[in-house]
């Protein structure tokens, strides 16, 4: 019988500690350097057992730590982030966003489920191993960044500069929520991402709509025509080449998705809609998990006053699936948009710097097998669902490119916990469930049939 760690008898001590962490308003978009460093130092102090330290980057610092006391065991790299999203409209919060509040069986506060709570779980497991057994079952390196919520702009350079120090047989991400609370799940894929602006300009400045109306092209009209042409009426992306490289959805995969319990009516009703809509020929879950998207996220132009705006901008994002390359998708959209010849305006496509390919990990990978077994122990009698993250985690592709290591998503956040929205929360039960699951996962990866094989460092 494998030994089991003991965790605190009540949740209160854990919640008190997490309260201090959530209280730091580490909003990477606009927090001061001092505030971000305070959050990083809190983490580093928790990692003192492994030489926790705050390390400078060209942006917000990373937190590093290394426990390498198991020379014959595999090595994992635990990844997460300490930065959080902006609060949005404070009037929409029931409680102050940076005061962790216990509300029945949940705790509320900005960042509690994305990603401070899930990272906290890993820290407590590592501390319990060392306090009770004097060692971890495998070698563990820790890397927590402070810029995930703004696209990790400085992580690639840092990772490349320190690749040898961060080398591992597997990356385990404490970020990346379970799909829904009704069953335990693991994600075997996440979608890629490209974003861009379409800019349409006309006259040198805004024009009085009475004096000039009807004599000049209106950039808002032109942009509306371009945006409307990005899709066909049945929801398919109308950009030639957008779907290039995507393999056909197999009968086997469609059958597997069809077996996943999913209530279309409940999904629709939960969104306050009369009907769902999307690419024809696919179910709602197939669209979410298997198909790429092109979405118009916003339009900026003029206002409610009587002018003809001199410029209009459309903000576009595309979620990509395996087979698509970000640079090819951007080129296809650019060609499509510039093919519109609209008199009297100038059209430009301005891609953002970051393009992320889709990420996958095989369902039979040792990490997935071990994680499935760990979740089965914690949630007996429940099937472990293999799901897809419809969002994007840029670090996964980066870890595979630079370290040659796959990433296992092992978060005890769930996707319904108002991530990025007001009143973000986390289920208190997930704290202990997560600790037990991380304990079991580390033991399984260290020894037995799910032991990690070393990653080849020579490209073979």
Automatic annotation (TrEMBL):
Gene3D superfamilies tied to this protein: 3.30.70.360, Zn peptidases
Record organism: Actinoallomurus bryophytorum
Domain Peptidase M20 dimerisation: 188-341
Chloroplast keyword on record: no
Keywords: Hydrolase, Metal-binding, Protease
Domain of life where this protein originates: Bacteria
Pfam families named in the record: M20_dimer, Peptidase_M20
GO terms assigned for molecular function: metal ion binding; peptidase activity
Protein name, as recorded: Acetylornithine deacetylase/succinyl-diaminopimelate desuccinylase-like protein
Biological process terms in GO annotation: proteolysis
NCBIfam families xref list: PRK08201.1, PRK09104.1
């Amino acid at each position: 019988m494998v030994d089991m760690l003991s965790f605190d008898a009540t949740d209160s001590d854990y919640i008190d500690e997490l309260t201090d962490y959530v209280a730091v308003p580490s909003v990477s978009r606009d927090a001061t350097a001092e505030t971000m460093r305070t959050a990083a130092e809190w983490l580093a102090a928790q990692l003192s057992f492994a030489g926790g330290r705050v390390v400078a980057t060209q942006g917000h610092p990373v937190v590093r730590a290394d426990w390498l006391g198991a020379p014959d065991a595999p090595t994992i790299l635990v990844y997460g982030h300490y930065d959080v999203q902006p609060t949005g409209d404070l009037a929409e919060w029931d409680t102050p966003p940076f005061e962790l509040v216990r509300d029945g069986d949940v705790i509320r506060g900005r960042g509690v489920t994305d990603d401070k709570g899930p990272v906290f779980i890993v820290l407590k497991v590592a501390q319990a191993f060392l306090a009770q057994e004097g060692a971890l079952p495998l070698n563990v390196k820790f890397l927590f960044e402070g810029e995930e919520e703004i696209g990790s702009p400085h992580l690639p350079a840092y990772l490349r500069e320190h690749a040898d120090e961060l080398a591992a047989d597997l990356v385990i991400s404490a970020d990346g929520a379970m799909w829904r609370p009704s069953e335990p799940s693991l994600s075997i894929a996440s979608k890629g991402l490209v974003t861009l602006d379409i800019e349409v300009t006309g006259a040198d400045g805004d024009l009085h709509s009475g004096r000039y109306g009807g004599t000049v092209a209106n950039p808002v009209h032109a942009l509306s025509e371009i945006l409307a042409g990005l899709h066909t009426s049945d929801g398919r992306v109308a950009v030639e080449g957008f779907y290039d490289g995507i393999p056909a959805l197999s009968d086997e995969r469609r059958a597997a998705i069809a077996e996943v319990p999913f209530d279309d009516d409940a999904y629709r009703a939960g969104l306050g809609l009369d009907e769902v809509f999307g690419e024809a020929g696919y179910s709602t879950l197939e669209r979410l998990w298997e198909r790429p998207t092109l979405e118009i996220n916003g339009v900026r132009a003029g206002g409610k006053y009587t002018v003809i705006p001199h410029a209009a901008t459309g903000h576009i994002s595309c979620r990509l699936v395996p087979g698509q390359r970000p640079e090819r998708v951007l080129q296809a959209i650019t060609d499509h948009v510039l093919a519109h010849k609209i008199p009297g305006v100038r059209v430009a496509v301005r891609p953002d710097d970051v393009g992320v390919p889709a990420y996958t990990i095989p369902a039979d990978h040792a990490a997935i097998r071990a994680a499935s077994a760990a979740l089965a122990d914690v949630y007996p009698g429940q099937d472990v669902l293999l799901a897809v993250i419809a969002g994007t985690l840029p670090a996964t592709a980066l870890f595979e490119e630079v370290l040659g290591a796959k990433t296992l998503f092992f978060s005890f956040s769930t996707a319904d916990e108002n991530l990025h929205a007001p009143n973000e929360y986390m289920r208190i039960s997930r704290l202990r469930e997560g600790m037990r699951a991380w304990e079991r996962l580390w033991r399984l990866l260290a020894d037995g049939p799910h032991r990690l094989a070393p990653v080849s460092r020579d490209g073979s």
